[in-house]
Amino acid sequence: MSKLVTVFGATGNQGASVIKHILTDAAVSKEFRIRGITRDVSKLAAQTLAKQGVEMKSADMNSRFSLADVIRGSHTVFLAASEYDIEVGVQYMIFSSLLHVTKTTSGRLTHVPHFNGKADIEEYIRESGLPATYYPPGYPMSNFIQMLRKEKDGFYTLAYPVEKDAKFPLIDIAEDTDEYSQCTGAIMKNHDRLLGARIYGAADYYTPERILAGLEEVTGEKTRPLQVSNEVYKSFLPDFMAEGMLENHLFIESPGYYNAASLNESHAI
């Protein structure tokens, strides 16, 4: 009988990408059947997955009984971690982690809770003894679209509070299966030798100039990078997220989104 892989966030970018790869990879789909977890199984995206053979279930992330029910019988769980995984017999987890910004910067940056929270969960999983591999996704390419502005001289500027040599580890989660879902498929195939490893989910490191060079090549538009002050950058954003987004980018500048880690070993799997 095939093993059960449970994918949380099944209709979101990451989860849907993983499911797509499992369904299209002959070797992985032969070994695993899929249970997709989403908030509302009545939505079109969930129904579409169900028609492709995915067992769709809804779950309340705040309910012990709901979580235990949807992960029961799973060999592998992707994305979500809870105290019930070991209790119900989960054998392996692929967790979409991130670095702890505050700890990595020795307290210099303290307003990036979505990174810190993911890192805290990774630490919990490691301490629990549950076999796992950690897969921190890179910086989404779609983020740049929001920051492009057309100036009066016709140039498009990309405004960020970072130096021109800052390195963004880019990934297109929604579109590029080579960079994301195929990597998670490779992790599933090789999980025995990747236990405890951190596999970085990015195509390559890109400076702002390299990003804009690619944009010019595709669109024919003229572009230039624009380094702005911290306060100017925050003025572009709603108050509730401005400080966090600023520190997120200061972290990318130094010490780096992946703390200057090489992508070579991750690409080699």
Automatic annotation (TrEMBL):
InterPro entries in alphabetical order: NAD(P)-bd_dom_sf, NmrA-like, NmrA-like_oxidored
Domain NmrA-like: 1-259
One Gene Ontology CC term in the entry: nucleus
Assigned keywords, A-Z: NADP
Claim: NADP is one of the keywords in the record: yes
Entry similarity comment: Belongs to the NmrA-type oxidoreductase family.
PANTHER family per record: NITROGEN METABOLITE REPRESSION PROTEIN NMRA FAMILY MEMBER (PTHR42748), NMRA-LIKE DOMAIN-CONTAINING PROTEIN-RELATED (PTHR42748:SF31)
UniProt name for this protein: NAD(P)-binding protein
Organism annotation: Zopfia rhizophila CBS 207.26
Higher taxonomy: Eukaryota, Fungi, Dikarya, Ascomycota, Pezizomycotina
